[in-house]
Amino acid sequence: MSDGLAARAEELRELVRRWDYAYHVLDRPEVADATYDAAYLELRQLEEAHPELVTPDSPTQRVGSQLGEQFAKVRHRSPMLSLQNAFDEEEIRAWDKRVRGVVGDEVVYIGELKIDGLAISLTYSGGRLVRAATRGDGMTGEDVTANIRTLKSVPLSLTPLRGLPEEFEVRGEVYFPLEAFEKLNQQVAAAGRERYVNPRNTAAGSVRQLDPRVTGSRNLQTFMYTLDPAGSARSQWEVLDGLEGMGFRVNPHRRRLAGIEEVIAFHRHWHDHRQELAHEIDGVVLKVDRHDHQLELGFVSRSPRWAIAYKYAPEEGESVIEEISVYVGRTGVLTPVAHIRPLIVGGVTVRNVTMHNESQVNAKGIHVGAEVVVRRAGDVIPEIVSVKDPKPGWRMPARCPVCGGEVIREEPYIAHRCINPFCPAQRMERLRHFASRLAMNIEGLGYSTVEQVLEKKLAAEPADLFRIPAGQWEELEHFGPKSAENMVARLAGARNPTLARFLYSLGIPQVGEATAEVLAAELGSLDRIRNASEEELRGVESVGPSLATEIRHFFAGQGGELVQHLLDVGVQPKEAAPRGEGPFSGKTFVFTGTLETMSRPDAEGAGAILGRQGRRQRQRQD
Q1: Do the Cβ atoms of 278 and 177 come closer than 8 Å?
Q2: Are 103 and 293 in contact (CB under 8 A)?
Q3: What are the structural domains of the chain?
Q4: Percent of the chain scored above 70 by pLDDT?
Q5: SS3 565
């Protein structure tokens, strides 16, 4: 296996993690659904072809998104899994063939509309709503009970179906009806505020309001589609009927589908008629109806084999490229951005399209003045699909557009990088990254504050932030005596981060949040990590040759100086507890009979997710 494949896999993992965070936590998607899906599919196929590339922290091995900090965390009784995606008839026929190969040709599917909203879990105890949680990372969500109680379509009390335990969960989707969304935008426009971009993100933001009265004023709606455990229901159809009987809103456009031709017809029908709906959809969901068939099919790492999302092709529009500019990131990587003539696609005005690298620009033949087809899937910044008169030959500038420093391309990477460590753009992004929530988590060090710090030459590297006295913070715009003291106090409180957070904050190329966690867990201390040889680093789970080289070069060069300067100002990361063998290591468990707290398929899915790390540890030792 070449280092190039390992580098590409790590690049894809970092992209998907970043896009997951932007979409699910910030509710500010960075790329089109189609771009995300293509990157995720490439990563999955790369890992399937080369199992040695799979890491425990890969997005293919987990479910959902990261959590916000303003709400309490709630552990789900069973994982809230994602669905596999299919985008064309060939893929859906292949899925049907796999299903029939396991359960036989008499399989019946349930077709449901794929609502473009926010996944939610409702817990009932003794017939009363006791907790509502977002999906979060699939295992743990955010407690939004007070907000969900304001939704009139959610029963606060009910008569449980026969066969249900004292406590059970109902799962579904919270969404923004189009009419209510338009009324909200009319209100904010009349008040002179900026209109909301799309229903999906606005629904997510509404559910996560700190004031439940705001949520209650938004006229959100729900559709429910899962019951855990299922009680006496023996099929998905019976579950939907049971939910409806208990007073939940269930989408009326569900259908029993006998065979793949009916599946394709159902998908085509709602593609042609989705504009008639009172809400947005981005496809249909197909589930094997019978629960015993679902049990036979089981789960893969992050999704059930018995269900799939059959998505619609993204919306498209035509525009013209007016300019191609280049932006510089914290590691010096140059990213081309195509500025297009403003185009409305799916209700969103698009002006900029990120192209990622020189190879992508030339693969599509993008050039200034080109007529292009732009598409977006869902609610996000789009991608350029095709160019009418492609002209390859665009080149990344030889000098950095910000500092004029030399730009190089290092094999086997496809990215170009400014190698001037004093580049203002890199300094800006490094400081912002260092202070970000997933790194050192220093509140108040956003873009405008960091920009002022650099302009006034108060800091050139992270260690300098800890030397700035309150009096100099007070000189910055929007700072007063109290806020300046608070900033000094927050910096003082950040001097003892976890080792994983500290490693991530350094901005080591290819070391994301999850890789930092693995390094911290396996090597235990900063001294051991920064003095480790490449051979020792390659012995760490998920660290390949190219990543080991990056880490070694970082600490041997200016990165080592950056770390020492942080230690000199009193920053001292905590040593990590060593990773050891657990009581279940090396054991195999089989679920049989009836479980009290979750269904057998959910137990098997949770076991597969939790057990995968132990299997990889044993494989590595072997």
Answers
A1: yes
A2: yes
A3: 1-54 (1.10.287.610), 73-311 (3.30.470.30), 315-435 (2.40.50.140), 499-568 (1.10.150.20)
A4: 86
A5: helix
What torsion, rounded to 10 degrees, do the Cα atoms 468, 474, 478, 482 define? 100
Sign of CA dihedral 152, 157, 160, 164: positive
Sequence-separated (6 or more) residues with CB below 8 Å from residue 354 = 30, 31, 335, 336, 337, 381
Measure the CA–CA gap between 165 and 161, rounded to whole angstroms.
Answer: 9
- 595/259: higher pLDDT: 259
Sheet holding 128-134, edge to edge: 128-134, 118-125, 167-175, 221-228
Q: Which of 470, 430, 462, 473 is nearest to 570 (CA)?
A: 462
Checking if the pLDDT of 211 tops 90, the result is: no
**How would you label 491-527 residue by residue, b for 16+ Cβ within 10 Å and e otherwise?**
beebeebebbbbbbbbbbbbbbbbbbbbbbbbbbebe
**Bridge partners for 235 per DSSP:** 290
Report which of 436, 445, 432, 462 is spatially closest to residue 565, judged by C-alpha positions: 462
Choosing from 97, 114, 183, 391, the catalytic residue is: 114
> Rounded mean pLDDT of the chain?
83
pLDDT over threshold 50, residue 614: no
User: Which amino acid is located at 560 in the chain?
Assistant: G
User: Which run of H or of E encompasses 454?
Assistant: helix 447-455
- Structure tokens of 250? 């269930």
H or E segment and range at residue 433: helix 424-435
Sign of CA dihedral 190, 195, 198, 203: negative
Q: Which residues contact 567 (CB under 8 A, 6 or more apart)?
A: none
**Angle, in degrees to the nearest 10, between helices 545-556 and 558-568:** 60
Q: Which stretch of DSSP H or E encloses residue 129?
A: strand 128-134
Q: How far apart are CA 343 and CA 448, in angstroms?
A: 29
Tokens of 123: 């817990």
Average pLDDT of the residues in 16-29: 64
Asked if pLDDT for residue 509 goes beyond 50, the answer is yes
- Residue 617 scores a pLDDT above 50: no
Q: Which residues contact 618 (CB under 8 A, 6 or more apart)?
A: 585, 586
Q: Where are the beta strands (DSSP E) in 263-359?
A: 281-288, 307-311, 315-328, 334-345, 348-354
What is the band of 621 on the pLDDT scale with cuts at 50, 70, 90?
very low
List the beta bridge partners of residue 207.
none
Is 114 one of the annotated active-site residues of the chain? yes
Of 105, 89, 4, the C-alpha closest to 53 is: 4
Amino acid at 27: D
Q: What is the pLDDT of residues 312-352, one digit of tens each?
A: 876 778 899 999 999 888 778 899 999 999 887 765 678 88
CA distance 474 to 487: 10
* pLDDT tens, position by position, 57-84: 677 754 444 444 567 888 888 888 888 8
Mean pLDDT of the 213-227 span:
91
* Confidence band for 611, pLDDT divided at 50, 70 and 90: very low
The predicted model gives 293-311 an average pLDDT of 88
Is the per-residue pLDDT at 85 higher than 60? Answer: yes
- 531-547: average pLDDT: 86
Integer Cα distance of 315 and 103 in angstroms: 36
The tokens describing 318, both together, are 């035509």
The strand pairing partners of 128, in sequence order, are 125, 157
